[in-house]
Design a protein that fits this description.
single chain; alpha/beta; six-stranded mixed beta sheet; ATP binding; ABC_transporter_ATP-bind; nucleotide-binding; transport; ATP-binding
C-alpha cells in the first residue's frame, strides 16, 4: 500500500449532490512515502478542497483517503498543515507558536522540540519575536516549524508561497526542499505555479474542473536548473494540459 491512497473521492458543496455539481469528481491517486507530491490547477479547480479532505477538516461525499494505512476521518496530529497566510497566533511569540502543538499533546520537552525546529528553519535568535514583526518569508518558516512540531507523518502545504514576493518565494522554495530532505516527510504541496511544481516535485497532478487531467512523475536530479531543456519540457507539458481543453491522464 502507498503511504497516501485516495480512492474514488467525490466532494460537493451542493446539497442536491448531482454529479455535475461535484467540486472533486472521482479523484484517485497515490503518494509514496517521503515523496514530494504537487497538485496544480487554476483557482476554483478543487485544490484546497482536496487538501482539506486530506487533512480531515472536511469529509468526502463518497470515497476514502488512507494515510499510512489509516482511514482519514477527522483532523489529526499526524497530518501537519501549512497555510498560505501562515495562520500564526499573533498573541504568541515564535517559540510559543512552534511549541503549541507539543504542549497541547502534553510533551514535557515541547520547548526543546520548538528550539530545534526554529534552528532548522533558520530562525535562531528570533524565538521571542512576535508574528507582526516578521517578514512574510520568516512567518512561513515559523508556520512550517509549527506544522512539524507534532512530528506529523504527512505534511500538507496549501500554496504556502503564494503571498510572497518573487525573490522571497524563490529562496523559500530552496528552504522547503532543504527542510524536506532533513525531515524525510511525505509532502503534498498545493500550488498554481507550474514552474514551482516542476522545481519541487517528485510527482505532479493537474486538477481541472474537479478531475485529474495529468499524473506525471518528474524525473530530474536536484538541484534543478530552471533553464535546462528538461525543465522546460516538463513545464510545456504541464502548460499544455492546464490550458488545453482536451483530457489527458498519464500514470
Amino acid at each position: 500500500m502507498a503511504f497516501v491512497e485516495v480512492n474514488s473521492l467525490f466532494k460537493s458543496y451542493d446539497d442536491s449532490g448531482f454529479q455535475g455539481k461535484y467540486v472533486l469528481n472521482d479523484i484517485n491517486f497515490k503518494v509514496e512515502e517521503n515523496e514530494f507530491f504537487c497538485v496544480i490547477g487554476h483557482s476554483g479547480c478543487g485544490k484546497s478542497t482536496l487538501l482539506n479532505l486530506l487533512a480531515g477538516f472536511i469529509k468526502p461525499d463518497k470515497g476514502e483517503i488512507y494515510v499510512n494505512g489509516k482511514l482519514v476521518k477527522k483532523p489529526s496530529s499526524q497530518q501537519g498543515v501549512v497555510f498560505q497566510d501562515h495562520a500564526l497566533f499573533p498573541w504568541y511569540n515564535v517559540i510559543e507558536n512552534v511549541a503549541f502543538g507539543p504542549k497541547i499533546a502534553g510533551k514535557k520537552d515541547a520547548y526543546d522540540i520548538a528550539l530545534r525546529l526554529i534552528k532548522m528553519v533558520g530562525l535562531e535568535g528570533y524565538e521571542k519575536k512576535f508574528p507582526n514583526s516578521l517578514s512574510g518569508g520568516m512567518a512561513q518558516r515559523v508556520g512550517i516549524a509549527r506544522a512539524l512540531a507534532s512530528n506529523p507523518e504527512l505534511l500538507l502545504m496549501d500554496e504556502p508561497l503564494g503571498a510572497l514576493d518573487a525573490m522571497t518565494r524563490e529562496k523559500m522554495r530552496m528552504e522547503i526542499l532543504k527542510i524536506w530532505k532533513q525531515t524525510k516527510k511525505t509532502v503534498v504541496f498545493i500550488t498554481h505555479s507550474i514552474a514551482e511544481a516542476v522545481y519541487l516535485a517528485d510527482r505532479v497532478i493537474v486538477l481541472k474542473d474537479g478531475k485529474i487531467f495529468l499524473n506525471q512523475k518528474i524525473e530530474m536530479e536536484r538541484p534543478r536548473q530552471i533553464h535546462s531543456d528538461q525543465f522546460l519540457k516538463y513545464t510545456k507539458m504541464l502548460e499544455k494540459v492546464l490550458f488545453d481543453s482536451e483530457k489527458l491522464i498519464v500514470e
